[in-house]
Amino acid sequence: MDIIIEGYLKRFVDDFELDKSEKEINFEKFCHYSILKNELSFLDDNDLDDVGVGKNKGIDGICFSIDGNIITSLNEIEDLSVTKRNFDITIYFFQAKTSPKFEDSEIANFCDTVIDFLSEKPKYSFTSETKEYHNLYLEIL
After folding, report:
1. DSSP readout, 85-129?
2. What is the Cα–Cα distance from 71 to 92, expressed in whole angstroms?
3. 63 - beta bridge partners?
4. Which of 12, 23, 48, 115 is deepest in the core (most CB within 10 A)?
5. Based on the number of CB atoms within 10 Å of its own CB, is 63 exposed (0-12), middle (13-18) or buried (19 or more)?
6. pLDDT for 59-108, tens place per residue?
7. Domain boundaries, the chain
8. pLDDT tens, 98-119?
9. Rounded-to-integer distance, Cα 110 and Cα 121, Å
């Protein structure tokens, strides 16, 4: 990781009062935040905890956005559907690396896992967090 990104990451960790010993997790959160803060109308500090999916194959984070707001549960979708029938839905998939480049195999692994996630019956085993997002995805369909 270059010195400029290191500086941004350090400030991010300090601003969000994150555990300094969890450098890889903090970098993932930093990447999630850097993308989502520019894409969504509202981003709460607590939303960063909802985006990560643990040690899942090929994916570090998933985020569902409906009309610019992060959605993490079926209840939130049901609440929205009471007042509206059509939604603008965006799914974000994240893979963050601290190394200076991605290997072709890592990109292929990420793409393969995203495609599997988007299938009705995935062949890969997912973390509990990813399973919750997959169930949410199936419900949105």
Report:
1. S---EEEEEE---SSSS--HHHHHHHHHHHHHHTSSS-SS---HH
2. 12
3. 92
4. 48
5. buried
6. 999 999 988 888 888 888 888 877 777 888 899 999 998 888 888 999 99
7. 3-140
8. 888 888 999 999 999 999 999 9
9. 18
